[in-house]
From TrEMBL:
Descriptive protein name: SET and MYND domain-containing protein 4
Any GO CC annotation of this UniProt entry: cytoplasm
UniProt record, GO biological process: compound eye photoreceptor development; methylation
Gene3D superfamilies: 1.10.220.160, 6.10.140.2220, SET domain
Entry coiled-coil feature ranges: none
One function term, GO molecular function aspect: zinc ion binding
The UniProt record lists the keyword Translocase: no
Lineage: Eukaryota, Metazoa, Ecdysozoa, Arthropoda, Hexapoda
Domain MYND-type intervals: 44-83
Length: 155
């Protein structure tokens, strides 16, 4: 039992005992999360609950929240960086993973903590660097520069 790794399967976990179908084997809090843009009008941008009585952002019309509490938490955190640039971010073709990376940086609290989180994630996640094409690295570098500029302008 435990974590194993090989060149064919990658990293994987082996159970010490038989498991029932759909039985949870690991439960951990998410490091970060963001809503797919197709759900911006129907779900809370903070907690992802389906909207019944939407609460608007006071600065933009791009997102909605399920409660004043979710709105206030988002607007004092990640949304203050995304708010005025949301149309640009969506229009850029940014993938949900790029949005998640942006969200992780803006939720970290400080540049130092963002760098620390990035180093931690690099140690625990598998990026398949050996399988990536140079064009993929180029595209990711351009997106990182674009997101950095948006963060600089938002401050």
């Amino acid at each position: 039992s435990g974590t194993r790794e090989d060149t064919t399967k990658g990293r994987y976990i082996v159970a010490a005992q038989d498991l029932k179908p759909a039985e949870p084997i690991v439960v951990e809090p998410a490091v970060g999360a963001c809503l797919y843009t197709k759900f911006f009008g129907s779900h809370c941008n903070a907690c992802f609950a389906k909207l019944v009585a939407p609460v608007a952002c006071p600065e933009c019309a791009g997102v909605a929240f399920c409660s004043p509490e979710c709105r206030d938490r988002a607007c004092s955190g990640y949304h203050r960086f995304e708010c005025h640039y949301l149309d640009l971010l969506i229009g850029s073709g940014m993938s949900v993973l790029c949005h998640l990376a942006l969200r992780l940086v803006t939720q970290a609290g400080s540049p130092e903590k963002a760098i620390e989180l990035g180093a931690e994630l690099k140690q625990t996640l598998c990026a398949h660097e050996d399988r990536r094409e140079p064009s993929d690295y180029f595209q990711r570098t351009l997106m990182a520069a674009f997101l950095l500029r948006c963060l600089q302008k938002a401050e």
